[in-house]
Amino acid sequence: MSIQGVQLFIQDDHVVMDNGILQVTISKPEGIVTGVSYQGIDNLLEIRNHESDRGYWDLVWSEEGTGGTTGTSYVIKGSKFKVMVENEEQVEISFTRDWSSSLEGKHVPLNIDTRFVMLRGSSGFYSYAIYEHLKEWPGFNLPQTRIVFKLRKDKFRYMAVADNRQRRMPLPDDRSPRRSSPLAYPEAVLIVHPVESEFKGEVDDKYQYSCENKDLHVHGWICNDPPVGWWQITPSNEFRSGGPMKQNLTSHVGPINLAVSNKQMFLSAHYVGEEMVPKFQRGEPWKKVFGPVFVYVNTLIDNSDPLWLWEDAKQETKAQVQCWPYNFLASDDFPKSEQRGCVSGRLRVSDRYVSNEHISVNGAYVGLAPPGDVGSWQTESKGYQFWTKTDENGYFLINDVRAGDYNLYAWVPGYIGDYKNDTIITITSGCDIDMGELVYEPPRDGATLWEIGIPDRTAAEFYVPDPDPKYINKLYVNHPEKYRQYGLWERYSDLYPNGDLVYTVGVSDYRTDWFFAQVTRKKDDGKYEGTTWQIKFNLDNINQTGTYKLRVALATAYVAELQVRINNPKANPPLFTTGVIGHDNTITRHGIHGLYGLYSIDVKGTLLMEGENTIFLTQPMCSSALQGLMYDYIRLEAPPS
């Protein structure tokens, strides 16, 4: 039996793409997805919502010179409609919104072209957008852009983000004021009078379902009757900002399902702060393609278990990844595989205190990102990034890189710091660049005297307490990501009501004795105070003329300061201070890392004593419960030998 070709029906106010498997209705000329019909369900999108609030691209923007991570929220609506491709194999349609000087101060100075694509025999549709800022236009900031779909709450109740992060979700109604109690910030509520009793006493918070870019390829929802799945598939991270560890929102009660930067989120400042916001100046031309992402719908065929829909979505994700970069898009701004290049090489580590020979590293992250400083890829948001991991011998291959200029960056789990190759790598169509053997020398002055933690850019190895029983999300009970429970910052005051953490090297165990976040302590009067942690350690012999090195790697910070003192808790000024750092908001948003930072502190031998020594780590900022920092790793090195 032949497969029906793709048909396009153009109406007065809507267009419909139909391939016999599903039908997608889009407003004309706005480009808002108003309906998706599949498997006998007239509309998978929330029919209670106005047509303009079902499936759309949106952004947040602010004028040049504005600070912060917020601005004017704007649902992107086209003013022109055009058919780019129409045949039995494929339909691609375009909705454009052009900017002119008459819109200055009213709308973001961008030309925006949102596209939708449907293929013959495909159980889904694609969407991507092209943003362009011309050189002569005013500057602006772009804190966020995303694609959003709002699904029917009477149909889609089961959500899946990963194999071990899926569950039946409460209803959006359960978040209403009459059914919930507010918590520390608007996104989190305690459900007290749910429609269904099983959710009573649970916390609902969209940040509990965030995910790192490297793991965020598919997420979505399942409807049981009839058995239907709705999935957003992101086959590449090239257009996402912030590199592989950047965290983004996914699906959550609404239900809202977004693509890059999730919901898909393409740009967001979550878990980083204002440093992540791209800021464009007058005179700065810019163009970027976000997506495509693939909206995949599926149903049960020879299986009665609705969870099979998740397994099928994962298989479809693999198939989409194999097809990347897509060769069927009509826009010249999206290069095909033969128009791209590749970079290969080998990365090894040189650390003479670990081995006299270069060390082959398995699983190191190697990436191409726009030229910048060491580690700048963490906050890079204007261009494209391409990442891979090394094999067991340190070899890497980065395929299908867009033409342009890049630096090669890397970081290696198990070692502190960042690698950057200073060579500007120019990618041209069809190029194949072999970088040869690259050697990363992580920061190191002397032998390790002691260390706390694992240098992996997260605080996941440290002690994460059980939540207050009043604030449970059942998904994360006995879960490896228990740090996603709400209110864990309050547990520090419970565990250390009168004094702060004291860690004794050689006796304490960082897995049980080092709290995952250095936060404030709540006092009896309801106010907060800063905290000072102590590291006690013994030294048998002191090199009085030498300089020791204290390495402190932070996994995140939020309006915090780290002051370091040696053997004198009242030394003023302290030996070292970071100053006030961080706007990651990771503690609030149940992450275990945000923006990575490494501090190397000189410790003169005259500050140390034979026998017991104490390092005092003070975080004095204390205007709220949510301020603080997370450590990744701490190491004391002997003077160079």
Explain what you see:
Residues 255-262 have low confidence and may be disordered. The longest helix is centred in the middle third of the chain and has 15 residues, at 308-322. This protein is mainly β. The radius of gyration is 26 Å and the shape is globular. The strands form 10 sheets. The protein has a 9-stranded antiparallel beta sheet, covered by helices on one side. Strands 5, 6, 11, 21, 22, 23 and 24 form a 7-stranded antiparallel beta sheet that branches. Strands 34, 36, 40, 43, 44 and 46 form a 6-stranded antiparallel beta sheet that branches. It folds into 3 domains: 7-156 and 210-323, Beta-galactosidase, Chain A, domain 5 (Distorted Sandwich); 337-440, Sandwich (Immunoglobulin-like), CATH 2.60.40.1120; 448-637, Galactose-binding domain-like (Jelly Rolls). Helices cover 4% and strands 42% of the residues.
Relevant terms:
641 residues, mainly beta, Beta-galactosidase, Chain A, domain 5, Immunoglobulin-like, Jelly Rolls, 9-stranded antiparallel sheet, 46 strands
Got a strand count? Answer: 46
> Any idea how many domains?
3
The helix count comes to 3
Q: Level of helix content?
A: under 10%
Shape type: globular
- In whole angstroms, the N-to-C terminal distance is 77 Å
Strand content: 35-45%
CATH architecture of the largest domain: Distorted Sandwich
Structural class: mainly beta
**How is the CATH topology of the largest domain named?**
Beta-galactosidase, Chain A, domain 5
Q: Major sheet, described briefly?
A: 9 strands, antiparallel
- Estimated radius of gyration: 26 Å
Main-sheet strand order equals: 7-8-9-10-25-19-18-12-13
The overall pLDDT average reads 95
